Amino acid sequence: MSIANERIKRFNKKRGKFKPKLLILFIIFQILFPMLMAPFIIFYGPFDTLRSLAVGTVYTSRHPQYLRFFLAQEEIEKIIGQSNQSLGGDIENTNRSNAVNLASGIVVEDINGQNALGKFHGKVMLIKDPKRIKVAVTKDIGVNGNRLSDLVKNIGAIAGINGGGFYDPDGIGNGALPDGLTVHNGELVHNNVEDNAVNIIGLDKEGHLILGNMSSTQIREKGIQEAVHFEPNLIVDGKRADFTDGPYGYAPRTAIGQKADGTIIFVVIDGRQPTWSMGAGMSDVYNIFKKYDAVTAANLDGGSSSEMVYDGKVLNKLWNIFGERYISTGFVVMP
């Protein structure tokens, strides 16, 4: 056998040898490299709209501190301040379906829509009598939050959605302390802003949904019976409120509104689920309330808090893989 033939034989033998470790390393590289590069493309790339959307989405999530791994606080505030685009716009891009009478005076419908991220899905609950709406507060306030299903059960209600936000001075994230001003049965049950004014989402004795900046003193003067603090307002006096989409991005959403006849509208939009629903921008939520002829509407706490329950069952598809989040307040429907 010639030397040339021998070399060819050895080459073919080496070439045909399967090396699983190299294949595994190649697959890992193909997965990890795009993941590692994605944040740099988003935050430092030439796509201003994508950067604004990403900053707004993370900024309003449970972990806004992650932004500081990539951007200085001054840059984050600059992007938030400049983000005034309307992601959802005023396009009628939603549709209603599958109306179900859950109980006397309570109807639930599916809501479906389309935005820049794709399709979104959620639930809308219509409550004919606004005087049935109460704010439920965790029974372990200052210590621990409750799941929405427990908030509903503990107060003797039959349905509900999550309510206002909560603050977390110790980083525990257990929903123990409602943020701003919280009112139940006409009593101020929690206040962490002293007598400063914050945006209130509440109901008076006649069941009118009241929105606007109020202090604890003004809440008493106006006879507010049930209230939480959150923002932004979406519809005030029948007109679109002064809000923009950019600072909020796309996320699971919860919101409350009211029609001219007094009917209360609960809205919960699923999000962060690529095969189901990526979430909604503020204009998407506004469009939903416009479709339901709301004259007043406001955004509530969203993200992993977004939830709607009836008779102890969760009606929407939760984003949190661990199930119901522990929260401090909810808007509930009494029997």
From TrEMBL:
In this chain the Phosphodiester glycosidase domain maps to: 156-334
Q: Which UniProt keywords are present, listed alphabetically?
A: Membrane, Transmembrane, Transmembrane helix
Q: Which Pfam families match?
A: NAGPA
Q: Where are the transmembrane segments?
A: 21-44
InterPro entries cross-referenced by the UniProt entry: NAGPA
- This protein's source sits in the domain of life called Bacteria
| Protein name according to UniProt | Exopolysaccharide biosynthesis protein
